[in-house]
Design brief:
The complex is a heterodimer of chains A (150) and B (321).
Chain A lengths: L7 E6 L3 H10 L8 E6 L7 H9 L4 E6 L10 H18 L7 E5 L5 H18 L21
Parallel strand pairs in A: 1-2, 1-3, 3-4
Helix pairs in contact in A: 1-4
Chain B lengths: L4 E6 L5 H7 L4 H8 L1 E4 L8 H6 L5 E7 L2 E3 H13 E7 L1 H5 L11 H11 L14 E4 L2 E4 L3 E6 L9 E3 L6 H12 L67 H4 L17 H12 L5 H8 L5 H5 L17
Parallel strand pairs in B: 1-2, 1-3, 3-5, 5-9
Antiparallel strand pairs in B: 4-8, 6-7
The chains are: A alpha/beta (150), B alpha/beta (321).
Chain lengths: 150, 321
């Protein structure tokens, strides 16, 4: 077994954080390669269920990044993300998951440097926390694809 | 021609589902006339060996309530699966884990520690706990093993249909049994029976306005207006994240929905849906104030996942962060 490499899923909003990541790329800034980026239209569209699904499928950390407060392309989507993440962190705690595995950041389109820093910092933080221990079995528990009422 | 065979069994459950079956009232006579009751430990004297003696697939319909907490629960689930043509997860425990499943927010060790040593009413020799096997002069005794976590029925065996609810509402049970007795075609395996296709709010008659919450209340802290949405009034009501089918019973009694019908269609994780719903209606943009508002909810995991911890995406508390 080699050294533990954290698997991190990043939900980045199209208008700010994703553009920031893009800028970090074109500026050739160095950052940890552990972040798997999912581009979304707004941080407010990241359902809490999606974050849990990332953990369920084996993510060691999840980053949600959106526009700075007041800058949201859709006025207040990032505040929804803020409230969601704060509440979800309490749920994670009750399930025995370190809340530092879920991180919310505001990154603007011009903050390529911040993106690179956050990405590396978060990777190191999750590395210290170690691999996420999955429950003995994490299956599609309900086994219920089609649903028709009688 | 012999009658179709019906079995009912309870695993880790409270017995409420058994009462719900009897609550179909006089229709129970039709059920008794139509089916040959071959196994129902709660109501009649049958032994496990009677079931073992049946041919595989010999039971036409098995209504299985209760979650899987012990090795006895699991072996009965496997046995009844083998013997039954149709195995139905009956009620919230079998479908989602329900109240016994809340134990997944702690550990097996913590439960045994409290029950046999910690609780003030317990007087016991230090370190003495029931063992799965123990030798006594008369021979070896065996009791079921207490598992690390509670599982749903579908997490142990293949389940044909699910009937949600804590307990399933008698009119819904009667309707499902009527469909089976009339020999009407059933939906594809894996379907929900006896429940709706929308959220509990769809069945609720209260008037809803735009939700803007500055704080949460517990039901006893305020006198809730009888015809306005409880969530609008700051009472955490699970309606938005709960499947319809009960007829909004709790809400009609001026109490918030607790979520026993499980997640609505196309939702895998009831609790996180509630997180998303509540986070959207909190009326604040200030991190400190948001935290203060959220702190009014004393036990978010136990409230949002009251009936679905084992069926949730995270299943159980893990050790080691």
């Amino acid at each position: 077994m080699g050294e533990f490499e954290p698997r991190i899923v990043g939900f980045l909003c199209n208008w700010c954080a994703y553009s920031g990541a893009d800028l970090a790329g074109v500026s050739r800034l160095k950052s940890a390669p552990n972040l798997r980026i999912v581009r979304i239209m707004c941080s407010g569209r990241v359902d809490a269920e999606l974050i849990l699904k990332a953990f369920q499928l084996g993510a060691d950390g999840v980053l949600v990044a959106g526009c700075h407060p007041g800058d949201c392309h859709y006025q207040e989507g990032n505040f929804k993300a803020l409230r969601r993440v704060l509440l979800l962190k309490r749920i994670l705690r009750d399930f025995g998951i370190d809340e530092r595995r879920l991180r919310l950041e505001w990154i603007s389109a011009s903050e390529g440097e911040k993106f690179a820093r956050v990405s590396s910092e978060f990777t190191e933080e999750v590395r210290k926390l170690g691999p996420m221990t999955l429950a003995t079995f994490l299956v599609e528990a309900r086994g219920c694809e089609q649903e028709v009422a009688v | 021609m012999s009658k179709p065979k019906l079995a009912l069994y309870w695993a880790a459950s409270c017995g409420g589902c058994e009462i719900a079956v009897l609550d179909v009232e006089e229709k129970i006579l039709d059920v008794a006339a139509f089916f040959d009751l071959v196994f129902w430990p709660c109501a009649m004297d049958f032994k496990y060996k009677d079931v073992e003696a049946m041919p595989d697939g010999g039971i036409d319909l098995c209504l299985f309530n209760g979650a899987i907490r012990t090795s006895e629960n699991e072996s009965m689930a496997r046995l009844l699966r083998r013997k039954s043509k149709l195995l139905v997860a009956f009620g919230s425990c079998a479908s989602d884990g329900c109240i016994p499943g809340l134990a997944n927010l702690t550990s097996r060790e913590a439960i045994l520690q409290w029950v046999y040593h910690g609780s003030p009413s317990t007087v016991g020799a230090e370190g003495v706990r029931p063992q799965t096997r123990v030798n006594v002069p008369e021979g070896e005794l065996e009791i079921p093993e207490f598992y690390e976590s509670v599982k749903t029925l579908a997490q142990v065996v293949n389940v044909d249909y699910f009937i949600p609810g804590c307990p399933p509402q008698p009119p819904q049970i009667a309707a499902v049994l009527a469909v089976i007795m009339e020999g009407k075609p059933l939906p594809p395996p894996g379907s929900m029976l006896g429940a709706g296709e929308k959220s509990c709010c769809d069945e609720c008659g209260r008037v809803r306005h735009e939700k803007r919450l500055k704080r949460f209340h517990r039901p006893w802290e305020i006198e809730a207006k009888p015809d306005e949405c409880l969530l609008d009034q700051g009472i955490v009501c699970m309606g938005p994240a709960t499947r319809s089918g009960c007829g909004a019973l709790c809400v009609k009694a001026n109490m918030p929905c607790r979520g026993c019908y499980g997640p609505p269609p196309r939702v895998a994780d009831q609790g996180s849906k509630m997180v998303s719903a509540l986070a959207s209606v909190i009326d604040s943009q200030d991190p400190g104030e948001i935290q203060w508002i959220l702190d009014q909810i004393p036990d978010p995991a136990g409230t949002f996942y009251r009936f679905t911890v084992p069926a949730s995406m995270l299943h159980s508390k893990r050790n080691g962060g």
